[in-house]
Each structure stands twice: as C-alpha cells, then as structure tokens.
Amino acid sequence: MIASEVNTKCRHCGEPLSLTFADLGATPVSNDYLSAAQRLGPEPYYPLRAFCCRRCRLVQLEDFLRADDLFRQDYAYFSSISTTWVDHAHRYADAMQARYGLTENSTVVEVASNDGYLLQFFKSKGINVLGVEPCKSVAEWAIQKHAIPTKIMFFGEEAGVRLAREGFAADLTAANNVLAHVPQLNDFVSGFRELLKPEGISTFEFPHLLNLISENQFDTIYHEHFSYLSLTAADAFFLSNGLRVFDVEKLPTHGGSLRVHVCRTGAPHPRQASVDAVLEEEREKGLGEDATYLAFSERVRETKRALLELLISIKREGKTVVGYGAPAKGNTLLNYCGIGSDFLEYTVDRAPQKQGMFLPGTRLPILSPDAIALTKPDYVMILPWNIKGEIMEQMAHIRTWGGKFIVPIPRAAVI
After folding, report:
1. How distant, in Å, are the alpha carbons of 152, 212, 314, 331 from that of 377?
2. Range of the domain at 368
3. Could you tell me the pTM of the whole model?
C-alpha cells in the first residue's frame, strides 16, 4: 500500500497515512441494528481499514462517516447492561474521591456519560455532577432513571469553554472508552483543557493498542471507533493540546485498557514513574516499528481461519450453535469472518432495546437470553469475550444438557 492510494491524513498530526494495520473488507456500521422491516431491504457497507501513522503512531480508520451519522438519537448501547462494567464504575468513583479529595463542593463532569452508569455513584456521595452525552436515547435514560443532569451535545473546545462559563468548571472529568469514537481528536481533547479548573484532573480510559495486537482483538475495529490508542500516541496528542499525562494505570477491562490521569501542562501534579514504564514497554514491544503493524494483518487472517475451521467441524457433526451478545465487536467478527445463519441459529442480548432487532450484515435475530434455555443449543459463542466470565456465570445452566462455550478471541477455543 503506497501513500497515494490512501485518501486521508492522520487526524492528529496530518501525516498522510500509508501503513496498513488491518483490512477487514467492507462491513455495515456495527451499531446499525435492523428492524424486522429493515432486514428485508438494503443496507450500506463501508470499507473497514485501519492504518498506522508513521509519525505519531496513532492507529486509525479512514474517514467515511461523520460522528453525527454514527451516534444518532437512537444509539442502542446502554452501559448499565453489564454488571461488570457498573461495578468497575463504582470502584472508580470510590478511588477518585479518595485520591483527589472530592467533596460536596467539587464538580465531576463525565463526557460520553451514556445512561448515568458512572455519575450515579458520585451523585450518591453528594458531589455535583454533570453528564455530557450526544445520544438522546441514553441521555434521557440517565435523566429519568438516575436524575443525572445531562447536556445532550457533542463535546469539543467550544463546548468546554461554554460549560466552564456556565458554572461547570471541573475538579474531575471522566471520559471512558470515548477517545476512540472521536473524529476530531485535537478539538475534543482541547475541550478538557478549557473545562478543567487550574488544578483539575481528567481521566481517560481506553483499550490499550498493545493488548489489541498481542491478543488478536481485531473485532474491536469498527466504524464507530476512529482511533486505536497506545500511550505513545496519547502522550503526543495531549501535549500538543495543552495537557500532559502524569499517571497511568493498567486495567483488565475491554481485554486490557489504560487509565491515564491528565492535567493542564502548568498544573502541579508530578509525573509518576508509571508513565515512563508503559512508554518503555511499548517501545520494547515494537510499537515504534512498522513491522509490528504489518505482522498484525496476517494474524488477523489466521484468527479468522481458526474460527471458521472450528465452526465447520462442529456443524459437520450436526451440532447447533447460537451467539451470546450483540456488541459492535461481535458484528465486526461475524461480518469479516462470513458467519451468518449457516453457522449460528440466533444471538441473544440482555438489552431490551436490542431484542427483536437483527444484526447488521448477518441479519441474525436478537432474542432474549431466555431463548437459550428453551432451545438448548450444543454451543454458545460468546461475542463480548471481554466479559466472558460474567456471561459464563449467567449461562452456567447450559452445562446441564452438555452445552459448551466458544470464545473466538484471541484464538477460537471451546470451554
């Protein structure tokens, strides 16, 4: 792949993109679930190709859709569906209050606050909170269910200035798994610089590119994720927008994530040894070398082959297989691997908003988890593998009829 073939530039530094990281063909938008009527009609497919910037090492997709096309008012992802994730949010709130001495005089703002899954825990401590969420459906849920004050808007530098002027200057801001969703990365990050109080702190959580590569997590690549982040890339774009990383934590969430603690460049928070330790680990693992990114492409193809070989052998034995979950990552996996109704009978999901809908591309029906006990499949393939422990505990009853689980990532395995 040569630079002239790529019609885009790095969304951080402007370098022309020429280094292919993963080419997953053409797929529909992963969160565009279909109604019964829509499944009878056409749906658009878009190229799904990720590139690595040779200058700043930001891994990113080509631009085909605007954010407001992807995150519409009826966006179907509700964070509170996962008890594992809600527990993680609760622990975060406790830890941040203790570390940064938050009181009833403090203000916590979450950007991409979804359905109030996190801010409910700060509110219960008497801390002032504000959610910023562009998707009307989940924002209204936060307002109605948790009484979380929420601004329905996209966030960026102008929004940060406006919110600070309106009295929401923040002691702490949280942005969990949202950096990847942002097409205008520099504008978005600058918004936190404007929203923070002089000594305020922002935390950002995101899946770590190092884990994505080492664990073959190619299914986390989809159109709603514009970027795939290392600390190397994040450190650079924070600094270029008036912020600096002063601490970093490794987390088990989403297959291995980082939580970075960020402040204004002039704030008195000392840089912790953890920052240089992670940067050095990334250098040692080759994140500064083209060969690391090129090698990933072949591992993606081999992961696909292994999963298809397993499913073909199971189906030739006359066994039945269903899916568990309807996450965006699952739709990338199924569409890239060509897994449809010839392999899976259906999938299930705990989110009522998804039940009765159909997966984009494969058009598999999404049922209630109760369907598994009724149909007693031989295998249940876990699509949100990052919470496989939670799902296997919920679905432990499949063992009573000899049912088994399939985990597709990092390599197809029967459990």
Report:
1. 42, 30, 12, 21
2. 301-414
3. 0.90
